[in-house]
Design goal:
0% strand, mainly alpha, elongated
Length: 166
């Protein structure tokens, strides 16, 4: 019997101890480093109004799972982040995953909408759509970050729908 189990610790408690002093929240077992994946597309979208050609870089961005992000990253505790994620409490993991789904949807849809506007010769419309998408993604990233740090609230569907009415 492993030492931790002999002390009466469950998997959650074991991982809470393992992540102490790491860049993984010991309450939620989630790491903010994952949000860097979204920082990339947010920064690119912010540049589109001044540099429409940067949209080509935006179009290369793809949603990436939490685990895949860490597998591909140079994060020092990437294996621990992947393993801890499997033990993250549902009260955090479910709203976190719902928020990520919303972010992925908005990013992909927004890039397509900006691309259509540019293809139609509407650079001003494309720029405004890119700015709006960047702001909306940042709002959702703030929600995701707060969940990582222990909050349990996501955005309501009506709030998400309003973001898509660009």
């Amino acid at each position: 019997m492993p030492w931790e189990q002999s002390r009466g610790m469950n998997d959650y408690d074991i991982f809470r101890e393992k992540v102490q002093g790491r860049n993984i929240n010991p309450e939620t077992l989630l790491a903010t480093d994952y949000l860097n994946h979204f920082n990339e597309v947010i920064m690119l979208l912010e540049m589109v109004p001044d540099m429409p050609d940067i949209l080509e870089d935006c179009k290369e961005w793809r949603p990436k799972s939490y685990q895949d992000h860490f597998r591909d990253s140079s994060f020092s505790d990437k294996n621990l982040a992947i393993e801890a994620y499997e033990h993250a409490p549902a009260q955090y993991k479910i709203p976190f995953e719902e928020t990520l789904e919303q972010m992925n949807f908005i990013a992909v849809q927004s890039i397509e909408r900006v691309d259509r506007a540019l293809n139609d010769g509407e650079e001003d419309v494309a720029g405004e759509r890119a700015r709006t998408a960047s702001r909306n993604l940042q709002k959702l990233m703030d929600v995701a970050s707060s969940i990582i740090h222990g909050a349990q609230k996501t955005m309501g569907q009506s709030e998400i729908d309003a973001m898509l009415d660009l």
